Amino acid sequence: MAPTPLLAAAALMAVAVASWSLAEGAGDLRQPPVAQGLSFDFYKRSCPRAETIVQEYVKDAVRKDVGIAAGLLRLHFHDCFVQGCDASVLLDGSATGPGEQQAPPNLTLRPSAFAAINAIRDRLERECRGAVVSCSDILALAARDSVVSTGGPSYRVPLGRRDSPHFATVQDVLSGLPAPTSTVPSLLAVLRNINLDATDLVALSGGHTVGLGHCTSFDDRLFPRPDPTMNPDFLSKLKQTCPAKGTDRRTALDIRTPNAFDNKYYVNLLNRQGLFTSDQDLYTNAATRPLVERFARNQQDFFNQFGVSMVKMGQIKVLTGNQGQVRRNCSARNPGTVAGDLSWSSLAQTVGEAAAESLGF
Ligand code: HEM
Ligand SMILES: *[C@@H]1O[C@H](CO)[C@@H](O)[C@H](O)[C@H]1NC(C)=O
Ligand SMILES: *[C@@H]1O[C@H](CO)[C@@H](O)[C@H](O)[C@H]1NC(C)=O
């Protein structure tokens, strides 16, 4: 049977689309597959207003303090990169969480972001009577709504994650989170372990279009010798904020539009105004440079890829079905559950402070 004109046209279009994306050297813009056990309508019956409640809370909180958006976005990133998106980052006593004051690493996650997650949890508890929406899903939704609230793209978030009763250990943190002093090869090595690629690296690093960094996260680029890849005017500006090594102050990650989710982060990199080595090297390195240039030129391309990469990141090693639990209190595992593996404190002795300090966060 001869192909119908419609089918033939569809086939031609498919060829055109395929060659277009090859020519553009783009990442794969198809939506990543939804992990088994997750779905877009997971709470349709059990908590139909869940997404709206998170959205309204975040919108309001960001209006009052735009820094919350950066805090919430980074919280989701840390959650997913360290032992998977299981809300372990929220556990009091976790090496990444708010109980970390016991010892390094000090990751400077915003306390206001933790408080926001707990406040959202309270609202959902009242609305849907009980522990229905997991803390890890709240993190994923709050990150998306933070992006939207600061002007970035929306994307659909697969839901149904379950929360882990296990703390993130210092070892998990050290191996899971790349340091800001990293260059592209070591960033890619970390991402490869969690099935993310160079396109994801460049797109996700665009999260640094909002928020703040401490001097200690980049002052190796100022002292003792300035990093020659840094724009000299940018260097003198940073030296005003951080006059000596170890200054306890913060500066914007995106010098152009510090509170807007846009593609100016990439424009900064073109002008050698990236704050961290891990940012600027995306432009220095020949493998990632074309994508930086493309995102700097075309904000829509960045937005599309950011949505795709966030969905990928948001599904790293998720717990589903009857794995894990839905925490009643996002800061503590449910009463009666056993930690199961090494707690933070037992690992602290084996990993040691020296290793944690070298993390440089
Ligand atoms: C690729 C490797 C990454 C490295 C090395 C890195 C490193 C850092 C560092 C060192 C800080 C500042 C901490 C401080 O000095 O207080 C920071 C802040 C931040 N990061 Fe990343 N990051 C990475 C990826 C990401 C990703 C994937 C996202 C989200 C998609 C993200 C979102 C943020 C945000 C929003 C802030 C600002 C937080 C605030 O203002 O409270 N980062 N990052
Ligand atoms: C950890 O970071 C917080 C927030 O920036 C800061 O107040 C605190 O002094 C730091 N603690 C250590 C031990 O560096
Ligand atoms: C949640 O857990 C944390 C950490 O154990 C605790 O400090 C806090 O009081 C708990 N909140 C509620 C509402 O029970």
UniProtKB/TrEMBL annotation:
Record EC number: 1.11.1.7
Signal peptide: 1-25
Bridged cysteine pairs (disulfide): 47-128, 80-85, 135-330, 215-242
Record site feature (Transition state stabilizer), residues: 74
Chain sites annotated for binding heme b: 208
Biological role: Removal of H(2)O(2), oxidation of toxic reductants, biosynthesis and degradation of lignin, suberization, auxin catabolism, response to environmental stresses such as wounding, pathogen attack and oxidative stress.
Protein's name in the database: Peroxidase
Organism whose genome encodes this protein: Lolium multiflorum (Italian ryegrass)
